[in-house]
Amino acid sequence: MTIPTDAPLPPTPMPVPDASGVRAFSTTAAPVQSRLALWEEYNELALFGLRCSTLSERSLVATQSNLELPRLRLTHIQGNDHVIERAPQNIRRNPVDAVMLCLLLEGNAFFYHEAGCETLSAGEAVVYDPNRPFMYGFSTDMRQVIVEVPRTVLREDGARDEYLRPRVLRIAGSPTAAHARTAASAAIRAFKLGQEGAAALEESVLGLFNVITGKAMDPPSQAYLATAREFIDARLGQPDLSAARIARAVGISERHLARIFAAQDTTPARFVHDARLARARELLAAPGFAHTRIGEVSVAVGFVSTAHFSRAFRRRYGCTPTEFRSDALGTA
């Protein structure tokens, strides 16, 4: 028997979370004519009810990953151009007691809500209330991270109604952009770590959520610390990671930066030094770097002198870099 191509598709089972608690879905392998319906169905169950449309001949080609933590939910979406609409009937059928922060990592978008229509580009963000109608569209290929915080959590922190209003956050080029990048990186890292491994990241992401949205008038030190660490980790190969440079990137004074690291029983300089040695240790133990010269490893982690690197490594780990590599790779 031939089934018409426009026949209703049977309901698609909700993807089961993997061992780490991450749930994932993609329209890539679905028939073109069913991609939009499948995306709407998945979002109804995993995020919230919405309507989706696109002008692309390929229909919607998108992937989504979801991770639920005790106090928030993270979503990572990548796809082609499309528009989503949260219409009144979607809200009535499936109300959501949360506030969303969307960090746009790639692409250009518009956000149409009760106060008007605003455009945004990569590096900016949107705060929205899924219980208020809106349209959120992408005119290009896109990628975003969504941080969803339940209202119960926000109320615990004394959030006001003004804080919940939908709006575009024009943070590109501002110190807040560094916090947004840190939050996005932490969220993406959480998907790799899973529910158990990501527990330690949750408080940092919540703190960053408060800073980015403007809820925290005096941003928590934990958010600044997370941003500083992210900035340092991404630049360990650069020798000039001074406290002044880190403070400028985070958007605080050197004195404030010093106090934040002092609360962790260290200093910015010591943290950078320790991070360089830890990264070097990882590289020396990696089979892919087995034939990389010790001098090249030292440069890769920001040391300007191989002799200085070797002395520092020995003081920290009790052996030379060469001895450590031989033992780690079993080539002694």
Brief overview:
The protein has 332 residues and is α+β, with helices and mostly antiparallel strands.
Can you offer a commentary on this structure?
The chain contains 12 helices and 12 strands. The chain has 332 residues and is of the alpha+beta class. Helix 4 packs antiparallel against helix 5, helix 5 packs across helix 6 and helix 7 packs across helix 8. The chain is globular. The N terminus is likely disordered.
Key terms:
332 residues; alpha+beta; five-stranded antiparallel β-sheet
List the helices and strands and how they pair.
Blueprint: E1 22-26, H1 35-46, E2 51-53, E3 62-68, E4 73-79, E5 82-86, H2 88-93, E6 98-106, E7 108-113, E8 116-121, E9 125-128, E10 134-138, E11 142-150, H3 151-156, E12 167-169, H4 175-197, H5 199-213, H6 221-233, H7 243-250, H8 254-262, H9 268-285, H10 294-300, H11 306-317, H12 321-329
Antiparallel strand pairs: 1-3, 2-5, 3-4, 4-11, 5-10, 6-9, 6-11, 7-8, 7-10, 9-12
Helix pairs in contact: 4-5, 4-6, 5-6, 6-7, 7-8
